[in-house]
Amino acid sequence: MPSTPSHQEELAIGRKEPGHSWRQDEEHVLPKNRLGIVSFAFVCTMFLGALDQTIVATALPTIVARLQGGNSYSWVGSAYMLAAGTFSPHYGKTV
Description:
Membrane topology: Multi-pass membrane protein
Structural class: mainly alpha
Main location: membrane
Subcellular location: Membrane
Oligomer: single chain
Keywords: Membrane, Transmembrane, Transmembrane helix
Largest sheet: none
Shape: elongated
InterPro entries: MFS_trans_sf (IPR036259)
Number of helices: 3
């Protein structure tokens, strides 16, 4: 069974070290024509997240009253987070 060459042997036979063409000062810049779109998408995402939390906070007293218990506040929050976490990958995949 042939052995794999060592790192020094690979360099000696002409293979280049990974990342040899990378520059230390290399910088990736988002083109200016896309910056507005990305900023708008980010603001929309933040707005929808805040709106979602506001709706849950507003509906929470009604939900707890229907569940008939003051101890149900934590269950409502846990159920919301579980549902949001479960469906997030699906939303990301379809969009």
